Amino acid sequence: MQTSQGPVFWPQQQGCAQRSCTGxxxxxxxxxxxxxxxxxxxxxxxxxxDDFVFVISEPTGAILKSTAHEALAVFKG
Length: 77
What we know:
Elements: E1 2-3, E2 6-7, H1 23-35, E3 43-48, E4 51-56, H2 61-76
Antiparallel strand pairs: 1-2, 3-4
C-alpha cells in the first residue's frame, strides 16, 4: 500500500483453503464474530471475500500506530 511516507508491506502469514466444504461456514462464523466487535471512534473494520482491512483515522502518526496496534490485538483475540 502506498502512503505519504512510502510503500508499506504486510507479509501474509496464513491463509485458508479455497473451496473447502466447511470454508464458507467457518468464514461466516469468524467474520460475524469480529464484525460485531465495538471499535473505538476512528477505527473501521471492513471485510470483503476472505479479507479484512482496518481503516483508521488519527491526528498523528504516533497515535495512529498505537490505535492500529490496539485494534490488531483485539482482532487477533
